[in-house]
Amino acid sequence: MENCLFCKIIEGSIPSNKVYEDEKFLVFHDIQPAAPVHVLIIPKKHIASANELQGGDFALIGDLHKVAQQVAQQLGVADTGYRLINNCGVDSGQAVHHIHYHLLGGVKLGALVGISDSHA
Ligand code: 5GP
Ligand code: ZN
């Protein structure tokens, strides 16, 4: 997909700090970490957001959870806990339109659901 930041990271034309890669997924550190552990888990297939998931994509997202489990172990937060976040659409603040899941951990995370002032 042209002009997609995460597709460019997948193809390697934009560098990233990778923590895991297989034929279907890439995991790399977020450039602006919001927690000691903050990685982005993305399918290599370009899907704009959770709203565009269809057919076999749902099984793919199931597999993404396997990757999350493995990466949490690898990064040492499986036992202490972590949060997986998917932002979808304008009100969520989704900035990159290639579906991705934030995996955050390494610190006691705040309330489960946050509504920032900018959204109030
Ligand atoms: P969103 O707000 O779309 O859910 O999350 C997009 C995330 O991508 C943000 O946390 C942002 O810091 C991260 N990000 C944006 N550009 C880059 C980049 O070039 N490299 C990496 N590693 N992360 C990026
Ligand atoms: Zn893409």
TrEMBL record:
Pfam families: DcpS_C
Signal sequence, start to end: none
Domain HIT residues, every copy: 5-114
Domain of life from the UniProt record: Bacteria
InterPro entries, A to Z: Histidine_triad_HIT, HIT-like, HIT-like_sf
Motif (Histidine triad motif): 98-102
PANTHER family in UniProt: HISTIDINE TRIAD HIT PROTEIN
Name the UniProt record assigns to this protein: Histidine triad (HIT) family protein
Organism: Paenibacillus turicensis
